[in-house]
Amino acid sequence: MCNPRRVRIRASSRLTRMWQEEVRRTGRASAEVAAEATLREEFGTLLGAPARRAFEAALGADTRWTWQDDAYRLDLDGGTVVYHLDTGEIEMTARLSDIVTAEAEVTRTLQGTVEVNATAEHTEKYYDDSWAGLSKSVAERSARAQAQKRADRDAAEQVARREEQERLAGRRRLAGQRDEIDAEAHAEAERRAAAAAELRRGELERDAETRLAQTRTDLLRPVHEVLAVAYRDAIVEYARRHGVQDIQVDETGGTLNIQFEMEA
């Protein structure tokens, strides 16, 4: 055995890693949609002059009806009935409404690449006579392996540190853009809500037409109730003008019965 010799090996490690940070923001918006269908029919002109006057007087006395824009108006659940005094027309309107909502998600992404080069050295001893199996080639292999292991470890540590630093910087930049991203998400949600509202409006318009046709009788019922009162008052007034005193009026069961006797 002779004096040991030493061999020093340097190894390098190159490591590349991609990173990505993103923020997702959701915007929500709602829009109210309304549609209506209207039908106008002759009514007052179909009555005789005395009956029309009595009908219009009965409308004015009925507290359910309001006077607005030269017309008597009655608001009902899901619609209105209007009697136009100048034309004698009945205008029936069916109204439908709905609320549509929409969401939009906006994503902002920051990404980058971290690349590091690390080097490391390691020294091993050997003997010229390869005592204890420590030949130069063995020493070189061992030194190379240890140097490479250390270089790889250093590269991994460096790239992890740099990646974390860049990620944190990216998060700060995204945080600074949060208000802008929120506004963008809300604007997109409003655009989608407006588009959905336009489609829904077309559906409601068709539904309102159908509903108006189906509920026409119900919409006219309060008009006929007022007309019945007008006929009652007109008949009673006629009888009293002709000296009739014993007048019996019965309005039970949805039927109006008026009884009196007049001398020929």
Tags for this model:
two-stranded antiparallel ribbon, alpha+beta, 3 helices, 45% helix, 264 residues, 7 strands
Describe the structure.
The protein is α+β, with helices and mostly antiparallel strands. The protein contains three helices and seven strands, in the order βαββββααββ. The strands form two sheets. The chain has a five-stranded antiparallel sheet. A two-stranded antiparallel ribbon has the order 6-7. A hairpin with a 6-residue loop joins strand 6 and strand 7. Helix 1 (49-61) crosses helix 3. The chain is rod-shaped, with a radius of gyration of 46 Å. Residues 1-261 form the FtsH ternary system domain. Residues 143-172 are annotated as: Disordered. It holds the Pfam family fvmX2. This is FtsH ternary system domain-containing protein.
Topology:
Blueprint lengths: L4 E38 L6 H13 L4 E2 L3 E6 L2 E6 L4 E38 L9 H41 L1 H64 L6 E3 L6 E3 L5
Antiparallel strand pairs: 1-5, 2-3, 3-4, 4-5, 6-7
